[in-house]
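User: For my dataset I need records formatted as: sequence, then structure tokens, nothing else. Please produce one.
Assistant:
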Amino acid sequence: MENFDISVQRFDEFAAEYAERFMNIELYADSIDAFCNLIKNDRPKILELGCGPGNVTSLLKNRFPEAYITAIDLAPKMIEIAQKVMPEVDFRVMDVRDISSIPEKFDAVMCSFCLPFLSKADSVKLIADCAEKLNSGGVLYISAMEGDETKAGFETTSFSGNSEIYFNYHSRHDLENVFAESGFEICHLKLQDYPEPDGRITTDMIFIGVKTYKI
């Protein structure tokens, strides 16, 4: 079983624990607000990747009550939790690496917790796929954990007990280049410390870009 598949299995197994631990995402509220402020449509079509139990989805729906939101996650139990809270949202069990198969175009793509579980190659492809899914002037939110990719490995979490999840780390410079190559102008970049359960401090990188030209 691949590292990615193991992580998905863990998220499905501990979906309820994750929902309880992370339903409050106040730490990221200002960045999500910055993302929303760049969306110029009051009734936007939004694609959310790795939506989990719908914590970010709820903020988006509150900000844009008339938005059409498609939210995907590969863990069925995460989708089940989210659907109970927001039955009006189009939740789907789907791999974020397959979004090129979605026929619609969107005004915004929210990808708040995917890159820590994607390899460098998959992350490059995902950002390019997001560019293809966005209308001109569309907005992309991406977050990742800063660090050398050689740091990747299995780690314990605050919600999965002794069951470890595989985490990937990404270079700020590499992601800046991928954004530019995919046709995005970075409008917001925030580096934010995050305290891990074992006492370590990791750094979250939050990128918000606007699609400036058709690739």
